Each structure stands twice: as C-alpha cells, then as structure tokens.
Amino acid sequence: MRQSRLLLTTLRESPAEAEVISHQLMLRAGFIRQLAAGVYSYMPLGRRVLRKVEQIVRDEMDRTGAGELLMPALQPAELWQESGRYDVYGPELMRIQDRHDREFALGPTHEEVITSLVRNEVNSYRKLPVMLYQIQTKFRDERRPRFGLLRSREFLMKDAYSFDASWEGLDQAYWSMFKAYHRIFTRCGLNFRAVEADAGAIGGEGGTHEFMALADIGEDTIASCNCCDYAANLEKAVPRSMEKSEALTAADKMEKFHTPGLRTIDQLVESLQIQPQGMIKTLIYMADDQPVAVVVRGDHEVNEAKVKHILGSEKFEIASSDTVSKATGAPSGFIGPWGLTIPVWVDYAVVQMSSGIAGANELDYHYRHVNPRRDMDLRHVADLRNVMEGDLCPRCDKGELKLHRGIEIGHVFKLGTKYSEKLGATFLDASGANQMMIMGCYGIGVSRILSAIVEQNHDQNGMIWPHALAPFQVHIIPISVKDSLQMQMAEDLYNQLQDHGVEVLMDDREERPGVKFKDSDLVGIPVRIVVGKDAGHGKIELVDRRTSNKETIHIKDVERRILELIQQ
Ligand code: 9G3
User: Fold this and answer.
1) Does domain 3-238+403-454 have CATH number 3.20.20.70?
2) Which residues pair with 151 in a beta bridge?
C-alpha cells in the first residue's frame, strides 16, 4: 500500500476526551474515529488489525471443530420475554420498534437466539454435541462509555455456544474452549491470566473463568499466587481460610469506653494508637430491600459479590445512613453487632480475633477487649471479604497472593440448562426420554483486544504492534521522494517484498523526514526500512520499532533479513 493513497490522518495531540494511552494513540494514529459516544469507525489501519485478530480467533475456533454462524443483531422481544430477561435488563438493552410497531432488541449477546435456533435443528442425542460460534457486532447501551474500544456501545465479539447431552460433554467443550482461548491470546502476544470468576447475572450452574489482559487501567482486579497457578477475579478470590486463630487468651472483659467524635477507623487509629487489624467494622447493606449487618476486620473490605452469593439476593447495595440508624438505633460510625434485630454475617477473620474494638451502637461510645468467640453472635460466619496483597494462597502451602489490574478479554461459562429450560431446547436420549440440552457459552472481546494490545505494547512515541497483528509487516520510508535513486530502490524493495507475500506500507508522501519518522513511530509497524543517502552504496537501514535497534545492510540481504525478522 502507498501512503499517498491511504486515508491516514495522524494527530500530533491527543483529543481531550481520550483518558487512557490506548484510546489516545488509536485516535492520534488514525486507527479509529468516534461517530458518537462509545460508537467508532475503524479506519483502514485499524480495520486491518481488527481483521487479523478476527482471523486468529476464527482459525482457533475452527480448530476446535466449532461451526461458524452469523446471527442477526435484530432480536424479536418475544424471545427475551420467553427467556424472562426482557425485563431483567434495563436501559443497557437497546430496544427499537419496527415499522409495524413490533418490539426488537439490538443483540447484546445471543443466548436466546442460538437456543431458539438449535431447539429447532436438534431433537436427538445422536445430533449432540453441537458447538457454534460467530464473530458479530454487539450492542450494549453503556451508561458511561469510555476508554475508546475498551468500553464502547457497539463492539465486535466472538460468541460461541455449546450444546451437550451430558455434563461430562459440557466439561469437554468448556476445556477445549479454554485451551483455544489460551492459544488465541498467546498468538496475539498478550500478557494474560485465566482466572476463576463469578458467574454474575448470567448465572448457570457451573464454573466460569475470565481471561484478563494485565493492564493498570483495567477495570477488574485479579489475585494470583506468586508460587502456584491459583488466580481468581477479586470477586471470587478466597484467602487461606485456615488463618491461625489468635490464642483465645482470657482477655479482659469487653468494656464500653468514651470515644467522642471518633467515627472512622482512621480517627480511632489516630487517637487510640491502634492498628486497623484490631478493629471490628460493622456495615449495613440492603439485600433485596432487607437490611443485613456484615462484620469484617478493620483492615479488610466487604466483598459484595460474595455476600450477595451467600444471601442469594438479586439486589445488594450499601444501606443509606438513615436506614442504618433505623436498623441499628445508632448513628453511623458507632455501629456494632450488638442486639440487632437484623441478620448479622461475620467474616472468618473476625472470628479469629482475640481482642478488638467495635462500635457500641451508641453515639460516642465503643467497646474494647471484644472477643468475638466469647462476645458476639456467630450464627452466620463465612468468607465475606476481599483478599488482600500478601494473603496466603488458598491452594498451595507457601505462596502469597498478589493483586493486579486486568482488562477482561474473554469469558467462558458453564450455563447448564438455564436457557434450554426457559426456551424448551430438549432432545430425546438413548432411552427415548426427553432431556434438557446442557449448554456452555464462550465470549471474546475482539475489538477490545486492540486496546489491550496497545495498553501492553507502546512507548512514548506510539504503538508497537506484535508481528501477528500489525496493519502491515514492513514500513518502507524513502527519505526523499525527489531523489530518483532512492525512489527506484524503494520501489524495487516494495515490489520484491510484496512478491514474496510480505505486507508492505510505503511512505511515498512528499513530507519532511521528521514527519515520516514521527508518523511511523506512532503507527507502530514493527519493521522499518529507511532508504536514504546510503542508497548510492546499495545499502539501507533496517530499524526494529520495538527495540529501536538499527542495522545498515546491503540491498541484496534485505529480503532474507526481513523474512527472518517477521518469522521471529
Ligand atoms: C443483556 C445486556 C448486557 C449483557 C447481557 C445481556 C452481559 C448478558 C452476559 C453475557 C454472557 C456471555 C455469550 C458470550 C460470552 C458472554 N451483558 N451478559 O447476558 F441484555 Cl443489555 O453476555 N454471552
């Protein structure tokens, strides 16, 4: 491709709305352009990268034996009413009416569609298992689209669905997808972790794993062991529950003491010279509109996903301060798990404490020398907290948990019969009995991968594309298009490399060298050939974008050297 023919407008400055480096660089390098909030056009260079990601995904999906489909984005509301999800999802589900005023949803995902499709095609165990996938545009009306392609309202997803006659079959499908995801993200050159995850709203009876690209701006937090392969989304990660119990020393009797104005942990720590680990924190939540008290150690945080799971509640949120005082008769800041009429859930780590300080449920008063096993109502005890950096690994006996931020790029779920039940996807088994198909679903954020790659592969001058995803493999830059010798050599190289199947971009614009180099650094094609004054001696300069390593080589060695570099 000649750059004089390519629609590519680079920007020197980052547009104000771009907050993260991947968004800034993709806008500046002319890979994407925003049409509306969270809605983007892929310009030629961006489209070429997107297509390469798609191709890797398609190649690995096909290798699992999955069949590629393309399902509609327009989904009749009836299907979502049949699955019971039409009213579960709010404004995030984009809804439209057709010319006959019939309701449709723009597909955010395709469980309903695929299940309604397969229930009509499969009625015998002989036709199972089925594994189908598509690479297709999804619509989710995010309240706050941001970070460019990372959280957009229209995005490209690979979504696959498996249908089995048995749970063992689902297990096989799940792990074959799991391994395919490992190959896909490895081929994309991503630094990623597969982590145990929380099934969340999608529900389903089985496990679920998320694939996380490590990145500081990632919205998710993962905990991974520095010794074994334990890794989990923070929502799901568990501490070593056999934390040694502090000796049940015959501590002093718990006693009330005056703590005027000391409402927060920090104020108490400051004035009483104690550590947060010695505090007992009671928080009030609303679980399906019922108040509940959750008690954790002062240095720990409540893990709302865990509490929600244990209570089996749909809605779960922190209670407002007047609900708090109504439910406990105390002002917030002095709440304690004493004499409450609401359920009290206590985290394991509190039970292990021998002596702590807790609110006394009375303005300006706390209790000290609280010994939970002696003084507290421990009818409900569970793992209710976020793990912390340095917690012991729950799996191996010597590792510690480290926390990382991650971008979710893939998610695999065991759905079980949740959708086959709702939508009547049944089959006749070998004995002629009607059974529910057992499903799994498997997603990859194809467009989101572009952002994850840039977050992990850039420097102060721009993006640095891995060879497998680069919009072009080689960037030829003639220093002066007016110099016929240089241009002739550049043209010969351009044709010779393309004749050998190398994807080449040539900067044949009448621009100053500095402009060409800045644009080349920004766009991030991994290998650059500079045709300059050495052309007279039959030599060019080869530059590695990632390492900035430069080598001057003779024209006759270029092709071999290039093929070496891009096959690396
Ligand atoms: C909706 C809306 C947003 C949604 C969903 C439904 C997320 C929804 C979960 C999934 C599960 C898997 C197949 C590919 C992998 C992920 N956001 N989910 O179901 F109506 Cl508005 O999409 N689906």
Assistant:
1) no
2) 146
Q: Do 45 and 29 meet the contact criterion of CB atoms below 8 Å apart?
A: yes
One-letter amino acid for residue 232 of the chain: A
Per the prediction, the chain carries an average pLDDT of 94
Is the minimum distance from the CB of 92 to ligand 1 under 6 angstroms? yes
Least Cα distance to 112 among 68, 75, 162, 139 occurs for 75
- CATH fold for the domain made of 255-382: YbaK protein (3.90.960)
Residues 6+ apart with CB under 8 A from 438: 163, 164, 165, 166, 167, 169, 170, 416, 417, 420
**Binding site membership of 159 for ligand 1 (Cβ less than 6 Å):** yes
Q: Which residue has the higher pLDDT, 82 or 333?
A: 82
Q: One-letter amino acid identity for 442?
A: Y
Widest pairwise Cα distance in the chain: 94
Cβ–ligand 1 distance for 386 under 6 Å, the answer no
472-567 maps to which CATH number?
3.40.50.800
Q: Where are the domains positioned within the chain?
A: 3-238+403-454, 255-382, 472-567
Pocket test for ligand 1, best of 83, 109, 413 (most atoms within 8 A of CB): 109
CA–CA distance, 226 with 390 (Å, rounded to integer): 10
180/188 Cα distance (integer angstroms):
12
Q: How many percent of the chain have pLDDT more than 70?
A: 97
560 confidence band (pLDDT: 50, 70, 90): very high
Alpha-carbon distances of 209 from 29, 212, 252, 440, 442, rounded to whole Å: 34, 10, 47, 12, 10
**pTM as predicted:** 0.93
The helix/strand/coil state of 121 is helix
Q: Give yes or no for a contact between 167 and 120, defined as CB atoms under 8 angstroms apart.
A: no
CB atoms within 10 A of CB 290: 13
Looking at the DSSP bridge assignments, the partners of residue 551 are 542
Smallest Cα–Cα separation from 45: which of 523, 466, 509?
523
SS3 letters for 153-180? CEEEEEEEEEEECCHHHHHHHHHHHHHH
Task: Give the chain's end-to-end CA distance (angstroms, integer).
Answer: 23
Q: 440: Cβ below 6 Å to ligand 1?
A: no
> Distances from the Cα of 33 to the Cαs of 13, 37, 44, 118, in angstroms?
15, 11, 11, 38
Average pLDDT over residues 149-169: 98
State the pLDDT at residue 386: 97
Q: What are phi and psi of 300, to 5 degrees?
A: -105, 160
- Ligand 1 in contact with 140 (CB < 6 A)? yes
- Structural Rg of the chain based on CA atoms: 29
Candidates 184, 217, 203; CA nearest to 406 is 217
- Strand partners of residue 445: 157
How is residue 408 written in tokens?
Answer: 């979710």
Residue type, 512: R
Ligand 1 centroid to residue 110 C-alpha, Å:
8
H or E element at residue 56 = helix 44-63
- The predicted-structure confidence for 254-311, as pLDDT tens digits, reads as follows 999 999 999 888 999 999 888 999 999 999 999 999 999 999 999 999 999 999 999 9
Of 202, 422, 441, 446, which is best to mutate to test ligand 1, by the most ligand atoms within 8 angstroms of its C-beta? 202
